[in-house]
Structure formats: C-alpha cells, structure tokens
Amino acid sequence: MFRTNHPVTSAAFFNREKELTELLVAAENLAKGFPSWLMILGPRKIGKTSLMLECARRAEKIRVLIVSIDTTEESPIGTSFFRRYALRVVDAAFGPELGESPEALALEPNAYRAALAESKNFNRLDVATRHLLFGVPDMPMSEGFIRQCLELPERLAKGLGISFMIAIDEFQELSALQSKRKAVSPFHMMRSTWQLQKRTSYVVSGSARSMLRALVTEKTSPFFQHFSIIEMGPIPREAAVRLLVESGTEPRKIPEHVAEQAVDLLGCRPFYLQLFGDALTRTEPPYDRDSLASVLQDLLFSRTGRLSLYFQNEFNLLVGQSRNLAAVLETLAKGPQKLSEIARAIGAPAGQTSSYIQRLDDAIRQTDKLYELDDRTFGLWLQWKKPGGSIVSTSVLGTRAEFEVAKHLGASGFELVYQSRASRGAFDLMAVREATQLGVQVRGTKLPVRFTKAEWNRLEADSLRFGWPFIIAVAPPKGRVILLDPNKAMRKNSITLSEHCEIDNILTWIDGVQ
Predict the structure, then answer these.
(1) Do 340 and 353 touch, CB atoms closer than 8 A?
(2) Which among 14, 19, 248, 446 could bridge 253 via Cys, Cβ 3.0 to 4.6 Å?
(3) What percent of the chain has pLDDT over 90?
C-alpha cells in the first residue's frame, strides 16, 4: 500500500541501502563503545524520517535505543524543546517496561512519577539520576536544567547498560533560540555536553542543507569537523519504478510501463511517487497513459491537488512577500539560466540578483555557470501556476496535437484540463473559460476529418449528458490549428468535417450555441 501521511518502513521502504548501512554501522560501533555523530542532508519529504525508523527496526537486536525527535513538533520553537527531548529519551528507556508512555503521562507529573517508581529499571539508577527523572515534567527551565536534559541519555545508558542513538530532525531550527530574549546557545551547549559522552551517538538532519553544512565546515562553528555527512537525494530511477509497481496490490497494481512514465514526469522523490501511487490506485483499473494523465492533472496541475498544495506551501516559505524572489524562481522554472539572463529577466542588477539567489538557498543549484531549480517537478508547477500556464499540463501529459490545441485555445483565455474518461466522456480535453465548459475532440491529421456514426453519436450523447457544447480541434503536423463547428458536419455513411466547418471566432461561436 502507498503511504502518504506517515513514514514508511519494512517492505514499504525502498532503496537507501547505502545510507542505511552507514547508520547501522554507526549503531554497531556505538554498541562496542565507539560513538559517532552523523548529519543527514536532504530536502523536505525526501525520506529522512523513514530512514531513521527503518534503522531503528533493523537495529532492534543491537542494544541501541534509537530516539527520534523533530524540532518542528512545536512552533515557534522554545527552550521547552529540551524538556520534550528528555521525555522522549525517558519514553524509549522505560516505555516498553511500563506498557505506557512516560511522555504522555508527563502532562500529569504525579502520575508520571508514580509510574516510574514502579519500574525495576528506574530503581537500578543512582539517586541523582532518579531525582532528575522525577523533575523532568515540571522543573523550571534554566541553562542548568537544559544541560541536565542533554546529559540524561548518557546517564541512563550507563545506569541501564544500554546505548542511545538520538536523531534530531530539522536541527537548524534550534538556531532560532539564540535570537530570543534570555537566549541560550544551544549548539555550544550541545557540543560541550555531547563530546564527553561514550554511550550516546547523535544523528542530526534537516532540509536547510547549506546552513547545516556550514555548521560542520566553518571553523567558527561549534560543530566544526564533528559530523560525518550523509547526503540524501532522489532515489535511483529503477528503485522509483519498483516503488510504484511493488507497492500496489491486485487488482490495483500499477503496470511497469505506467510506473516508468510517472517517474519520467514526476522524478524520483519518494514522497511525490507515494502521492501519485495513492491517487492512481484509488481510481478503477486498468491503468494506462490516460489514467496517468488525469491523476497528475488532479494531483499537480490543480489548485486543490495534494502535490500542488505542498508546492504552494514551499513557495510561500521560500519567497514570503518578496516579488523579486518569486520572479527568480519563475525565471528558473523555464530551465537553466546564466546569472546575466536571470538579472535581465527580473529587471535587476547582477549583484542584487546574486543576493536573491543566495536567499533562495537550497531551492537552486549551480552547475558550471548556470543556475537551475533543484526540483524539476516544482519547476513544472511554477510554470503551471503563472497566468496562461494551463498549457503546461498538456505539454507534459498530452500528445503533440493536444498541446498545439491547448496553446491555441489558451490564447483565447481557455484553460485545458485533463479528466478521467468517466468525467470527460468521449472528449480528449475539457476547455474552461469562466463559467463556460467546452468539450474538445482533438485530431492530429489534415482536413477533412471523419468519424463513424458510432463515434459521432457518442460525442453528441456526452455533450447532452454533461451539458457542454463541443468542437473538433484539428492540429495537423504542419500548419495552423483549426477549430470546427460540429453543427456544420456533413452526415452520410460517415460524418465529415472540412474547411467550411471552421469557426472564425470561438468566443462568438460559444455565445451563439449557449
């Protein structure tokens, strides 16, 4: 089954064997008394959390407890993160024995303390550690308490004869604590505490790759040369195709050729593929190019599509209220550009444009002297969301003829929409302009065009059923697009439309037939 709302593990986990091996080796070394620090870099929704959960599943036989915490679980972030950090560690150490979650019980400190007091493992600990554990839910926040929270995994590891691997996602968000009143310096405090520990390893990750990389590589950083870096990008194409094919179940299994087409269009980011697979397998099989196109239309090229909404959120986070940042992204959506070309397109000096690019950070990558978007699928969405961008969907989903027709009708203010066969009937496309809906049958041949009586009867029946007027759009391999009026068709043994059926003005024609 496809998983879109939570991380994947076990049989649903695809590829990432290299990254997983590095984590498991780190866990094995930790169990032998050799801790290490790892940094996982990758864009949002690339699978960092799934990687850690799969590592935890496979590491069950190693006496290493893997604890995961995400800094974005609370917003805005505050020093209470460190209380939650400590409670997550307590959960891992005592939850299995207690059969309930100390972190959840901490909302009622007395219930939390009563549960811990019943634990055999708790009573094996020294008095100071037990006192600290009792105080975690309600001890006042202070630098001293924060340091004790950071020390807690090591104290528990020594007392219980285990090891901890602590995974902190979106680690860069902790930097915000330094800019607040009565600020703490979390990174300096973490470094000074962690480097004394022998039974605890740390894995930090985040989507702000440039910022995190600077934490490791800049000499002024408290973490300079302290972490080994694991880069996470899209999975290989072969693994992406397998993800789509093997995650489905009969009778809603995705054929390999459809999976390959989806990967070619969406790329190899697991989150996008999970969304697509989930959406496609909610429709009725069999699955083909037609069903792929209608699902991608709903998912990506729709204002309410799940992937479209995700990209809208990412876009808002990147540009805020800045029109210049938005202009840079929209320019790069067309393809790789030189700095001078971007500057000319947005009407800004090269130096200022360079600063805009730096502010967009990991959304843009540089290869040689060219800049390009890091995510090609995001680029498709950016092109689609611009005024008149509806033809983008036909450029990637449709035939040559459908794309030519989309461009022609787009010039008259229409948006061309793919729908499932059930939703559009006999028509290839639906054209929308304000309240007008128009069925479009596309032919990629020269005039005249012919239909059998059965084909024509179905077009007319679907036109009545949906309440749409319809046209025939002809886009020959060479020559202009011609729109034909079905009411002027010549009816004999077959139905024929030729030059005399041409519509001079589509907007006037629609007013006349409605």
Answers:
(1) no
(2) 248
(3) 72
Q: What is the DSSP secondary-structure string of 116-143? A: HHT-TTGGGS-HHHHHHHHHTTTPPP-H
CB-based contact 411:399 (threshold 8 Å): no
Q: Label the pairing between strands 470-474 and 436-443.
A: parallel
Report phi then psi at 420, rounded to 5: -65, 160
pTM over 0.85: no
* pLDDT tens column, 80-94: 999 999 999 999 999
Report in angstroms the alpha-carbon separations of 426 from 78, 134, 201, 460, 482.
Answer: 57, 70, 61, 9, 20
| 514 pLDDT higher than 80 | no
Rounded (5°) CA angle 472-474-476: 165
Count CB atoms within 10 A of the CB of residue 286. Answer: 11
Instruction: Give the model confidence (pLDDT) of 289-345 as tens digits.
Output: 888 988 998 999 988 999 999 999 999 999 999 999 999 999 999 999 999 999 999
Which residue, among 38, 15, 75, has the nearest Cα to 270 in the 3D structure?
A: 15
- What 3-state DSSP class applies to 19? helix
How many Cα neighbours within 13 Å face the side chain of 151?
15
Q: Provide the sign of the torsion angle of the four alpha carbons 396, 360, 204, 122, taken in this order.
A: negative
Question: Do 153 and 30 contact (CB within 8 A), yes or no?
Answer: no
In the chain, the N- to C-terminal Cα span, in Å, equals 46
| CA dihedral of 316, 319, 323, 328, whole degrees rounded to 10 | -120
How far, CA to CA in Å, does 101 sit from each of 88, 94, 108, 112, 295?
A: 9, 8, 12, 9, 41
The side-by-side arrangement of strands in the sheet containing 415-417 is: 415-417, 429-433, 436-443, 470-474, 482-484
Q: What is the mean pLDDT of the chain?
A: 91
Average pLDDT over residues 448-461: 95
Q: Following DSSP, what letter does each residue of 413-469 receive, concatenated? A: T-EEE---HHHHTT-SEEEEETTEEEEEEEE-SPSPEEE-HHHHHHHHHHHHHHT--
Sheet strands side by side (includes 449-451)? 449-451, 495-497, 490-491
Rg value, the chain, Cα: 29
Measure the CA–CA gap between 423 and 438, rounded to whole angstroms: 13
Rounded to 5 degrees, what are φ and ψ at 249?
-125, 150
